[in-house]
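Before the break, one more example. Copy the sequence into your notebook; we will annotate it together after we see the structure.
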Amino acid sequence: MVSFFFFQAEDGIRDAQESRGLGDVYKRQILEAYYPGQLGGDAIVNTLLGLNNPGGKTPVTWYPATILDRSMDDMELNSGDGLTHLYYQGEVLWPFGHGLSYTTFSYGWGSSSDPNPTSPHEMALHPGVEYRCNVTNTGPVAGDAVVLGFVTSSDPNFPRQKLFDFERVSLQPGQSKAVLLTVLAEHLSVVDEQGQRWLRPARFNVRVGDVIAPAERSFELIGEAQLLEDLGRFF
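Here is what the structure looks like once it is written out:
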């Protein structure tokens, strides 16, 4: 069973956090442990006391109670307000990829000499476009940053967003690291009703960092649509 731990920090917990230099970081928190295992209790206590700095991100979208108004028979991901972070258009309690830390991070673009392909054909032949993101620990304690890469598209058939890459890095206070995230042609493509994967001309927006304050950059593919592969035999 998935374990949920809901708590409001009491004075003893806040005192322990302050002794670690954390201050009164979060007065009210929810710690999601999922499958904590045999040593889960120790890990949870250490996290509450500030001896461990959590860095995980939620792998699901946390919907509001209104999601129960949706028919249980409707399992189409893109019908109505949609389902999952790929298609859900409504307000959420916590978005896919959200997670708190006892420290803070900033994200910015690093230099890159690799130009973006300019057409679907060029992108289909490209080994992958690398985006360099500089992440800095701007808080008082060491922590792990999970750098997420999302892409959106002006193509009306494209999902609301796609996660194309991610990397977790450990940073001391004030330390910075460069992270490379790679966009492949498949990440920019859509599969039609015949099971064919197409890379179509569109404007794409790339976001890297976290889901709260990412760094953003756009590029455009122009020209004829490119068939990447025929998946119809699997449908």
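Residues 63 and 92 are 5 Å apart (CA to CA). The chain is about 10% helix and 35% strand. Try to locate both features in your own notes.
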